[in-house]
Design goal:
The protein has 307 residues and is an alpha/beta fold. Helix content is 24%, strand content 27%. Strands 1, 2, 3, 4, 5, 6, 7, 8, 9, 10, 11, 12 and 13 form a 13-stranded mixed sheet that branches. The chain binds 4-methylsulfanyl-2-ureido-butyric acid.
């Protein structure tokens, strides 16, 4: 089964850029995608706003205006309508404030009929919860979000088994294997990755981009799945985030790649039948996994040195 899949990379969103302006940019990319025959389109993490966890506020409720209390809402409804008109499925990330007052870094997957068929809340929140004066850049996701309560799930959408992860999740093999064990054929990942590192002077942007790509290619190969990883990138309020959006095949090869740091569409044809080879040979989990030796993965969180 073949599907034309797109990644809609989004350039920087400034603090004072409203949701409507962002949705207009998303729709322009969706239009281009439609012209290229895209059937399923992936947008980044936290697509609707600037990456505000770089800013500290004492009273976190002052930042509730970055969150959405319903989805779709007035700002995003035109995107849903356009996708339905095109018969295109899509996924994007946003900041969710629930009726109970809980804050999550969330992604939704929307069918071509315009129905939200899956919701994922980010599991691995990087950074820290308090202001850290020794850092040149703050990364306060742990302040503004709760760890997700959904876990990693898949849904059959447009004939393919799809699962979502968000940004930092892509660096953790647990993310990929949990989806792989459910037979995933397409993993979608939106990300906002700052190019600067606070604590290591040696780690430049090249190394950061390499680690991003290594993680996505390894995860795709080791679970024999396609993956689409899409950036929000470029300059945001004076801060740089790297681009590097990619589509990866089940052999771990990059089959489409963004060339710039702005709004940009990448497209590739995914032949989901190609997932079967790896899943039935070297990564035939039923035949080769040895769960009796994996207990530490779920029983232990941090490293323990006992020798
Ligand atoms: N958004 C996000 O999760 N970004 C992280 C930055 C890590 S550095 C604190 C990432 O893993 O790309």
């Amino acid at each position: 089964m073949k599907m034309i899949v797109g990644g809609a990379q989004i350039g920087g969103i400034q603090k004072d850029e409203g949701r409507q302006a962002v949705v207009a940019r998303m729709m322009a990319l969706m239009e281009q995608a439609h012209e290229k025959g895209v059937e399923f389109l992936v947008y980044p993490e936290m697509t609707l706003t600037t990456f505000f966890p770089r800013f500290y506020v004492e009273d976190r409720s002052e930042f509730d205006h970055w969150f959405e209390t319903e989805m779709p809402n007035a700002a995003t409804q035109p995107l849903f309508d356009m996708a339905k008109r095109f018969g295109m499925g899509f996924t994007f990330g946003y900041c969710e404030l629930t009726p109970e007052g809980l804050h999550y870094n969330t992604s939704i997957l929307v069918s071509p009929e315009g129905e939200i068929v899956s919701k994922y809340r980010k599991t691995h929140l990087p950074g820290h919860a308090e202001y850290e004066a020794d850092r040149t850049h703050q990364h306060l996701e742990k302040r503004y979000f709760l760890p997700g309560d959904t876990g990693f799930n898949v849904v059959r959408n447009q004939g393919a088994i799809m699962g979502m992860a968000i940004c930092n999740d892509r660096r953790w093999p647990e993310t990929w294997r949990t989806l792989g064990l459910q037979g995933v054929e397409l993993v979608t990942i939106g990300y906002n990755t700052p190019s600067q590192n606070n604590l290591s002077k040696e780690e430049g942007i090249e190394r950061r981009v390499y680690h991003h790509e290594l993680s996505v290619c390894a995860g795709a190969y080791q679970n024999s799945t396609y993956a689409v990883a899409v950036a929000k990138c470029g300059m945001e309020d004076g801060n740089h985030m790297f681009a590097g959006s990619i589509i990866v095949d089940p052999d771990g090869f990059v089959i489409a790649r963004a060339t710039g740091e702005g709004d940009e569409l990448i497209v590739a044809e995914c032949d989901f039948d190609k997932c079967a080879f790896g899943k039935s040979t070297v990564f035939n989990f039923a035949a080769h996994r040895r769960v009796e030796h994996y207990g530490r993965i779920t029983e232990q969180t941090g490293m323990k040195i006992e020798v």
